């Protein structure tokens, strides 16, 4: 079955450490996205990529970095420059234009202590 | 700019009650409209969609009609169950075929037995 996989589901890191969240899809989607969700809040776009080897900043890109070396993969690195990294991170993918919406992964809950 | 406005929650209902969650939008052109559902600790799942005016999306007893004259896409269900307790997000495709979805802030539904 096609889908989008995020790993790990829970991640704990010490303050000051970089951490990379994995996102893999086998839907043959061109576009991929990263969102951040804080408790009781909506979704905020971090980065998105519409094609391999290209990506754009979203609304809250500071303190984050991404790469898109393969169509299937869009890892997100949370750097030590991100002031409040503890959050729920969601990855999504879509075909070009997103006319049929996004497919989401199950999320990674990052806790920085 | 494009935007989505949802009714504030939480919405608390008794089992078998009628549900309406209001969603209105601002957009140029003819966006596609979506409802997503998020269960606790999980990613978002596409619940239903409509791609043109007067279309009705439906799934699992939920319905929403694309009303261009009132720029609305209200979610309805005739008889809710405890298992429907979740957060519901309304979304639209952003103008200009950028492939990006604009999400509302989400509405929490609590159904009590």
Features of this protein?
heterodimer, A: 7-stranded mixed sheet, 0% helix, B: mainly beta, 4-stranded antiparallel sheet, 12 strands, 50% strand
How would you describe the overall organization of this protein?
The complex is a heterodimer of chains A (113) and B (113). Chain A is mostly beta strands. The mean pLDDT of chain A is 93. The radius of gyration of chain A is 13 Å and the shape is globular. Chain A is built from no helices and 11 strands. Chain B has 113 residues and is mainly beta. Helices cover 0% and strands 50% of the residues of chain B. Chains A and B meet through strand 5, strand 9 and strand 10 of A and strand 6 and strand 10 of B.
Overall number of strands of chain A: 11
The rough form of chain B would be described as: globular
Query: Structural class from helices and strands of chain A?
Result: mainly beta
- The portion of residues assigned to helices of chain B is under 10%
Give the helix/strand layout:
The complex is a heterodimer of chains A (113) and B (113).
Chain A: E1 4-7, E2 10-13, E3 19-25, E4 31-37, E5 43-51, E6 54-57, E7 64-66, E8 76-78, E9 87-94, E10 103-104, E11 108-112
Chain B: E1 3-6, E2 11-14, E3 19-21, E4 23-26, E5 33-38, E6 44-50, E7 56-59, E8 62-65, E9 75-77, E10 86-93, E11 101-103, E12 107-112
Parallel strand pairs in B: 2-12
Antiparallel strand pairs in B: 1-4, 3-9, 5-6, 5-10, 7-8, 8-9, 10-11, 10-12
Short description:
The complex is a heterodimer of chains A (about 110) and B (about 110). Chain A is mostly beta strands and about 110 residues long.
């Amino acid at each position: 079955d096609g889908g989008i996989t995020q790993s790990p589901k829970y991640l704990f890191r010490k303050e000051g450490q970089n951490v990379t969240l994995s996102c893999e899809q086998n839907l043959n989607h061109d576009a991929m996205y990263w969102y951040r969700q804080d408790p009781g809040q909506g979704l905020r776009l971090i980065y998105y990529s519409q094609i391999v080897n290209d990506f754009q900043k979203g609304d809250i890109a500071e303190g984050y970095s991404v790469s898109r070396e393969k169509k299937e993969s869009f890892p997100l690195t949370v750097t030590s420059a991100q002031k409040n990294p503890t959050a729920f991170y969601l990855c999504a993918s879509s075909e070009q234009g997103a006319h049929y919406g996004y497919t989401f992964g199950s999320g990674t809950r990052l806790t920085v202590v | 700019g494009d935007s989505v406005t949802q009714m504030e929650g939480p919405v608390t209902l008794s089992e078998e009650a009628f549900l309406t969650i209001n969603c209105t939008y601002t957009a140029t052109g003819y966006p596609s409209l979506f409802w997503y559902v998020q269960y606790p600790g999980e990613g978002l799942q596409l619940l239903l969609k409509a791609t043109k005016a007067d279309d009705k999306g439906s799934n699992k007893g939920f319905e929403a009609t694309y009303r261009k004259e009132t720029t609305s896409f209200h979610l309805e269900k005739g008889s809710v169950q405890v298992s429907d307790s979740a957060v519901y997000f309304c979304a639209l495709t952003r103008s200009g075929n950028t492939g990006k979805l604009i999400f509302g802030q989400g509405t929490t539904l609590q159904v009590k037995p």
